[in-house]
Amino acid sequence: MKEIILNLRDDLKEKLSPQRYEHTISVSFICTALAMRYGADLEQSELAGLLHDCAKYYGDGNIIKKCEKQNIFLTSDELKAPVVLHAKYGAWLAEHKYGIEDKEVLDAIRWHTTGRPDMSLLEKIVFTADYIEPRRDKAADLPIVRSVAFIDLDECVYIILKGTLEYLEGKGYFVDSMSVQAYDYYKKIHEMKKGEL
C-alpha cells in the first residue's frame, strides 16, 4: 500500500496545479491524523485523502461530458451545481484509472463535497479533512471547527454543513439537496446531544 500511495503522489503532482496538489497532500495528512484520533484505518484514510480531488484536473464542463461519456448518472441537482461533480467523477477515476477496489475509499471520495446522511467514519474523516486542512483560510469559524474535529466528529460535520449551507444560501448559490439531507441528519444528532446535557 505504501508504494501505491507514493506512486499516486507522483502521478497527482504531474496532473494537478501546485496549489491543488498542496491541498491534496495536506488533506491526506489530516485524514491520517483524524484516523489516529478515531481509530480508522490509516492507509485507507491517507489513500482516500490523496484521491479525493483527483478529478479536479478537469474543469466542471469537462467533468459533465466525461460523466456522460462513461454513462455516470447525474442528478438534476448535480447539473445545477457542477462544482460538486469532481467527487462523483473522482470516485469513478479512482476505481477505473487508479485501480482502487475498496468501496469505503471510493465512497469517501464520492461524498466529500456534499456529505450525506449517516456517513461512514472514513467518509466523515475525508469530508472534515477537506474543510479543515491548514491551507484553508476562508471560513471564519475555522479555528473552532479544527478543534471540534478532534473532539466530536459528528458535531464537526454538523458545524461544517451548517456553515456551508449558510454561505451558499447567503450568496444565492444553488444548494445540492444531498447537503440539505446531510445537514438535517447531523442537526438531529446535534440536538439529541444538546438534550442530554
TrEMBL record:
Species the sequence originates in: Lacrimispora xylanolytica
Molecular function (GO) terms listed?
A: bis(5'-nucleosyl)-tetraphosphatase (symmetrical) activity
The protein depicted here goes by the name: bis(5'-nucleosyl)-tetraphosphatase (symmetrical)
A Pfam family of the record is HD
Spell out the reaction equation it catalyses: P(1),P(4)-bis(5'-adenosyl) tetraphosphate + H2O = 2 ADP + 2 H(+)
Q: What is its EC number?
A: 3.6.1.41
Q: Which residues form the HD/PDEase domain?
A: 16-144
Q: Which keywords does this chain's UniProt record carry?
A: Hydrolase, Iron, Metal-binding, Nucleotide-binding
